[in-house]
Amino acid sequence: MKKIMQKSIIFMFMYVSLFALSGCSGTDDSSAVESEVVTLFLVDEREFAYGGVPYLCDSMDAWDKTSPNGEFTFLPPDNCEFDFLGFEGNYANDPFFDEIVRVVDYKLEGKNEIPYECASFAGSSTYGDGRFDYDSNDACVFYL
Fold it and tell me: Which terminus of the chain is more exposed, N or C, with fewer CB under 10 A?
């Protein structure tokens, strides 16, 4: 009788343990939010980073700057404004003075068809290689 009681207690303990551990496999809400964050980069035509460009997205509380590697993050469907103060722009299409800026992913593949508009002209969308038009000292909003 004592042996049966011990076995019953052991099985009961195992059952309770399995039930308790099965509750530990739930999803973490913070990881779901993190997975929605998108990271893109600003680079030039030679794929050198544009770090330090001020930007503000709808999901942000304050202005930030692109990382030294040109990285910026946002939560779709954010609108993100970039301040290109101090940049010459590429609106005149001058190969000597233009500063070509491209929006790319981590593979350096251009993100085309991103709608945007700049303070100096009406809206457009990025080209196939992620390039976009902007004027000297311009501010542009991208509809990401």
Answer: N
